[in-house]
Amino acid sequence: MPSPARQGSRLRAAVVGTGAIVTGSHLPALTSLRDRVELVAAVDVDRGRLDGFRAQAADAGFADVSVHTDLTAMLEEARPDLVLIGTPPMFHREQTVAALKSGAWVLCEKPLTLSLAEYDEIAAAEEASGAYASVVFQHRYGSGAVHARSLLTEGALGRPLVAHCQTTWYRNAAYYEVPWRGKWASEGGGPVMGHGIHQYDLMLHLLGEWTEIRAMAARLVHDTESEDVSTALVRFKDGALGTVVNSVLSPDETSRIRIDCEKATVELTHLYGHGNDDWRYTPAPGSEPPPAPTADVPSSHTAQLTALLDAYDTGTRPPGSGQSARSTLEFATALYKSAFTGNTVTAGEIGPGDTFYAAMHGDHPDWSPKQ
């Protein structure tokens, strides 16, 4: 149920991390929804960055933001209802568990954790606290994705048959000079975890459960612990087959999903966010084109935060949390296991005792961090 601290007023929110993702995405989302949420606190280890963020928040209409360099102290003093986390991935599990234990709900940047083992720690903290943790998968939200999922789940497009999921981006050597990037212990992986995860999460959201995956991965350009490109073949529970490509080696950047169904092909082509105009439907011969969505809401942090606030108001599990989010992380884990072992991996096979349950590299001799 919603925290008693709210008592019918605006929900009290805090941000952890005040870098580009928070200033560029979370703060605008909070500002757009300030009739429902109030930003009361911010945490960062950099005091200068904190002071700059506090000024930005004041300009956005949040005049009384307290600033902290310690998360525990902030949780005790500010008592937020919601904590938005935008720190590097290596801190997500610890910060999410701390916020949950305080009774706050969490909206955390992807990946929520660096392994399935860490994710299950968060699930246990949820159960103990009664609060919920959601991961930022903003591409699920917005009218285009909502409409496509409705058409697919209702059968309006016929049975899905073939899917393609493409995240082909470009990152140069300077990008990986940031110390935590490209390392298993701090980022959790390469483009599978840090880039393509948004696109294949949306594919899974649209098509439902997957059953098996066969994959390959490589380091072709960058001097990193993790991969810089991967490919995968996927079988879904309903029989559909799909391909997934995650790359940071592609000068012509695009993000794309295509699903061929019995009655139509649905395609989404964009880069970092989509609106209705980025979706295209091509009916099969003899079939009528599907109806268009009635609204045009872009995918964004604002759209996801709106859905979370709606769930908070009703005391129900928010979207992008629980088993729904775990399935996407399991998909990433299975992709790595298949790529590194050369074996087909089935849904549900990776659990405690499997080396890939504890770390995405699975202690594989060719991929685990060098001692």
UniProtKB/TrEMBL annotation:
Top-level taxon: Bacteria
Signal peptide start-end: none
Chain spans, region Disordered: 279-300
Residue stretches making up the GFO/IDH/MocA-like oxidoreductase domain: 147-267
Stored InterPro entries: Gfo/Idh/MocA-like_OxRdtase_N, Gfo/Idh/MocA_Oxidoreductase, GFO_IDH_MocA-like_dom, NAD(P)-bd_dom_sf
UniProt domain Gfo/Idh/MocA-like oxidoreductase N-terminal: residue ranges: 11-135
Protein known as: Gfo/Idh/MocA family oxidoreductase
Taxonomic lineage: Bacteria, Bacillati, Actinomycetota, Actinomycetes, Kitasatosporales
